[in-house]
Amino acid sequence: MTSTTPAGSDPAPRPKRRTFSPEYKLRIVAEYDAAPKNEKGAVLRRERLYHSHVKEWRAARDAGALEKLVDKRTSPARPKKSAAEAENEKLRRQVERLERELARNKAALEVMGKASALLEMISEGAD
Length: 127
Description:
This protein is an all-alpha fold. The protein has 2 domains: 19-74, no CATH class; 81-126. The chain contains 4 helices and no strands. It has helices at 22-34, 40-47, 51-62, 83-126. Helix 1 crosses helix 3 (51-62). The N and C termini lie far apart (89 Å). This is Transposase IS3/IS911 family protein.
């Protein structure tokens, strides 16, 4: 039997990752905690969540960190860096890397200089 879709095309669009607002997270944690023991799983199934979601959100709520409930990696409120800020950050990382390399090379040259001086002393003593 032959396929009706071309070999290189994706039959379905890529799913998007769900995001949850802090209000939603707090509402679900409260609902989950208020549910009788035998109905907690029903809350998770209805919302298509895992127990780990509720556990993580409860810990953040108990720590009093409402802002920690927002996933900073995927939050639409995450501010974008300007091109100049991004370039500055890139250059700062490059400078730090080059300074580490320079320090390592200086240490290696110092060791080689001491080894060279030691070999000169040994060769002069053998003469």
